[in-house]
Description:
Layout: E1 8-11, E2 14-17, H1 28-32, E3 35-43, E4 46-47, H2 50-63, H3 72-86, E5 91-98, E6 115-122, H4 130-133, E7 135-141, H5 156-168, E8 172-177, E9 180-184, E10 188-192, E11 197-200, H6 211-222, E12 226-229, E13 232-233, H7 234-239, E14 242-247, E15 251-258, E16 261-262, H8 270-284
Parallel strand pairs: 7-8, 7-15, 11-12
Antiparallel strand pairs: 1-2, 1-6, 3-4, 3-5, 5-6, 8-9, 9-13, 10-11, 10-14, 14-15, 15-16
Helix pairs in contact: 6-8
This protein binds 4'-deoxy-4'-aminopyridoxal-5'-phosphate.
Amino acid sequence: xxxxxxxxxxxxxxxxxxxxxVIPVMDRxxxxxxxxxxxxxxIEGRLVDNDHHLQRLERSLAEIGIANPFSIEAWTEIxxxxxxxxxxxxxxxxxxxxxxxxxRAFQYAEGLEPTVVMFPQFSRVQSNPVIETGGxxxxxxxLRWARRDIKSTSLLAQVMAKxxxxxxGVNEAWxxxxxxxxxxxxxxxxxxxxxxxxxxxxxxxxxxxxxxRRTIIEIAKRHGLTIVERPFSKAExxxxxxxxxxxxxxxxxxxxxxxxxSVGGGAxxxxxxxxxxxxxxxxxxxxxxIS
Length: 291
Ligand code: PMP
């Protein structure tokens, strides 16, 4: 990373320049990936779906027995301060909580002080050109562990999947458990069937409960679409009228090709477009935190 990183982060209780921020090498996040994380989008000065992201953080922490160091209000205050100090109007806020610093041993003592790291990333989530052109995906085996509902910082399988994405020159990988799609490497997978059902995998320990997934389903219901939450196969993607994926960092991206084969007629579809537009419209009805 650049040594002229002028972003202000929130690291171990203080607002500091990322240039100067340090984490002890004995941090269990570094040694074991013993921690969880969250990513919230910032669009036009608004924190998107933030309460739901912070609730999922609370759940991830509880599932691995780390006490949540802050209330939702306190987290939001720090996020807001990061937006102000960095003049972050558009981008992402990353939050990571690891179990803390201790002698290296698998077993941990209760009551370690969790290590909190937060920083902004600048991007225009809502101005991704792939929205217009459509994205291409590959399928890869889902190599992850059996508790994918926890937003773990142990991301080696996703690092490998995203490297395959880069090598293939595509936009995303959808992960396969046998013949069935679990989810994207960093996104939730959706298809639209010939009978106009919106299909996405049901929540379980097999996938991350995507926050964007949640909001998109809410909007789809409002639009009168039939939602079916169940696993679907690779073959179903190829016969779908549309496919797309969702995440905080992309909102939603239409899929026009999978493993080199055309999907959804090879162009972004109307269901995707109406859900995407409604999502952005809903965000803009909320008051901005910074202008
Ligand atoms: N699944 C995985 C594996 C992810 O990493 C992400 C991105 N965090 C998602 C789904 C989408 O979740 P969200 O909409 O909450 O960003």
